[in-house]
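Team,

Forwarding the record for the chain on the shared tracking sheet. I've put the sequence and predicted structure together so nobody has to dig through attachments.
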Amino acid sequence: MQGISRLRHMIGTIVLALAPAPAFAIDGALLPRNLSPWGMFVSADIVVKTVMVGLAVASLVTWTVWLAKTIELRRKGALALQRTRALEGNTTLAQASARAGDAHDAVAQLIQSCAREAELSSGVLDDGLQERIALRLERVEAAMSRQIARGTGVLATIGAIAPFVGLFGTVWGIMNSFIGISESHTTSLAVVAPGIAEALLATALGLVAAIPAVVIYNHLVRGIANYRALLGDASAQLMLLVSRQRDHREFRLARAAE
């Protein structure tokens, strides 16, 4: 009886050893060990890596432009508001020009341009002078508007193309997954998962680069519009100042003739 028991035990062991593994069993060594963002980046294809690095650089450029333009708009906007308020008081063009001096901010250049045209006109205050001053102020406003808007175009570009660049990385990752399936002749998760993960990471980076770029671009556009409005107010104050000086001179001439 003891020999029969041993024989049964040996037969059972052999059967278990020869039995096929379950169809859903996956070799643990084949499974991707690190599906963290950095791990996916390291194991990604060179094309997907290039896409990811490009999107990361685009995101860095977006935040750099936001910081630089925010500081510039606040500084220039505060100075423009200060000079515009100074023009609202009881002052003359000569006094405003003396206060502006050789400064290079936008309102100071408006004042200097206005004073330069008055100087070239030999102090003759007429309708022609006002028209010439208006043309000069318009040109200076346009130049200052172009200057303050520099750098914002790259945000519009990033916001427009970053999703498509991420989509390219997604398509490339999916292609790698299908190639892996074809070469291994299996649909195992170990073959499909890395390419799918890389594809999704590229898509996520595309959105991370594009969404802030669009939001920041719209925010800066509103700030630039407010700055342009300040320059328009300064130009209007200068035109009023020239008009008042002209009226005062004509009034003095009329009183002298009497």
